[in-house]
């Protein structure tokens, strides 16, 4: 009976929120729909479609709650993460609002069944889920850029040595490369084609990626351009330096992994071993212990 009451209360809550029709749209949906790269046939099915429909009811309220400044920072974060799964600002806000509504409904249900802490934990988890997912996607993209950068620079250096200009060489290499680094390079080429200088375009790429390897590449490239260093030799030196930095980061990550492994062993294997030894001792002495107790 308590569960039925909770479900009924959740339904009433959702229906009450859906009555605020004036707060559910912002006029940006059609504009940002064209920015999404995921095919429509794939988007309109599954749990994601349900989240989009539910979150669209509260999109206006969510945007006002964020405010202009936070919306700009959120847009920068989404762009830096590479718009995973065709994510746009409107889609993010819709799904964030949907997760919050689901968390509130879950909190009400758990309050009715007498488990408030479980409901509160669920609400906190759902409220931060989209942010955690976006940060994770951005971190994976940055790691992939760092891994692709040395090979990309090697091929670019060979192409420049073959006689092509820098811009033509970048275009040529991007034709045969996929991944986030090639996407960033194509963005640089597009910006240069509309009149942005090479310096500004590469500095913008450095700010978008926030990668140490890309920052080193851009700095060395601009210095080579200012000092008149041959571009092919500069690219070889940059690729070598980036590889050394990547190897150093790998060694640092490996050094940090050892304490984590020790912690996992301490928290799992050791307690299990102690339980096994204690159980064996109790079973071997069950007759003596039964006489005592």
Automatic annotation (TrEMBL):
InterPro entries: DUF5936, T2SS_GspF_dom, T2SS_GspF_sf. It is found in: Cell membrane. Pfam families: DUF5936, T2SSF. It is a multi-pass membrane protein. Keywords: Cell membrane, Membrane, Transmembrane, Transmembrane helix. Gene3D superfamilies: Type II secretion system (T2SS), domain F. The chain crosses the membrane at residues 87-111, 117-134, 261-284. It comes from the Bacteria. Its main location: membrane. The keyword Transmembrane applies. Residues 152-277 form the Type II secretion system protein GspF domain. Residues 1-141 form the DUF5936 domain. PANTHER family: INTEGRAL MEMBRANE PROTEIN-RELATED, PILUS ASSEMBLE PROTEIN. This is Tight adherence protein C. It comes from Cellulomonas iranensis.
């Amino acid at each position: 009976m308590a569960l039925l009451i909770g479900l009924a209360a959740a339904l009433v809550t959702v229906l009450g929120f859906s009555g605020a029709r004036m707060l559910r749209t912002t006029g940006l949906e059609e504009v940002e729909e064209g920015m999404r790269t995921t095919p429509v046939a794939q988007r309109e099915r599954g749990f994601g479609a349900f989240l989009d429909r539910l979150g669209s009811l509260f999109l206006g309220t969510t945007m006002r709650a964020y405010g202009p400044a936070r919306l700009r920072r959120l847009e920068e974060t989404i762009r830096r993460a590479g718009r995973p799964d065709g994510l746009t600002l409107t889609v993010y806000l819709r799904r964030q609002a949907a997760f919050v509504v689901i968390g509130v409904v879950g909190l009400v249900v758990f309050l009715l069944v007498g488990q408030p802490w479980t409901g509160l934990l669920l609400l906190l988890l759902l409220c931060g889920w989209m942010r955690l997912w976006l940060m994770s996607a951005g971190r994976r993209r940055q790691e992939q850029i760092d891994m692709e950068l040395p090979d990309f620079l090697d091929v670019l250096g060979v192409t420049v040595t073959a006689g092509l200009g820098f811009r033509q060489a970048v275009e040529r290499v991007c034709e045969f490369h996929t991944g986030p680094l090639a996407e960033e390079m194509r963005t640089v080429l597009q910006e240069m084609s509309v009149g942005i200088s090479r310096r500004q375009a590469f500095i913008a790429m450095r700010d978008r990626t926030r990668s140490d390897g890309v920052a080193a590449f851009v700095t060395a490239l601009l210095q080579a351009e200012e000092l008149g260093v041959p571009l092919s030799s500069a690219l070889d030196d940059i690729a070598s330096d980036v590889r050394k930095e990547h190897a150093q980061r790998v060694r640092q990550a490996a050094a940090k992994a050892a304490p984590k492994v020790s912690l996992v062993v301490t928290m799992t294997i050791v307690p299990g071993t102690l339980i096994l030894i204690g159980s064996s001792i109790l079973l071997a002495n069950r007759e003596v212990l039964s006489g005592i107790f």
